[in-house]
Design goal:
The protein is of the alpha+beta class and 85 residues long. The protein has 3 helices and 3 strands; from the N terminus they run E-H-E-E-H-H. The protein has a 3-stranded antiparallel sheet with strand order 1-3-2, covered by helices on one side. A hairpin with a 4-residue loop joins strand 2 and strand 3. Helix 1 packs across helix 2 and helix 1 packs across helix 3. The radius of gyration is 12 Å and the shape is globular. The termini are far apart.
């Protein structure tokens, strides 16, 4: 099963690295592909969209239209972590 989610706050490869690392740790996620230009995340695996959205919100990369100052701040922290890894 493949799902596409359009998110906000993806700025660079560090963001992409953090997102991919976190989503691949979820049970039943087989593959994660990210398009930075369109801020689209494609998840392959048998997982509920709500679980993926919760993880993305925790990281600061909410579904398009659900952004906030707190989520933007979280995304900058996870971006920095992604750059270090």
């Amino acid at each position: 099963m493949e799902q596409q989610i359009i998110v906000e706050n993806i700025k660079c490869g560090g963001c992409m690295n953090s997102i991919q690392t976190a989503l691949l740790k979820l049970d039943n996620v087989e593959k994660v592909a990210i398009n930075k230009e369109t801020e689209t995340i494609t998840i392959t695996g048998n997982i509920e969209k709500a679980i993926v959205l919760n993880k993305l919100n925790e990281l600061g990369y909410p579904e398009k239209g659900d952004n906030s100052i707190l989520k933007i701040a979280k995304s900058y922290v996870n971006c920095a972590i992604g750059k270090m890894n």
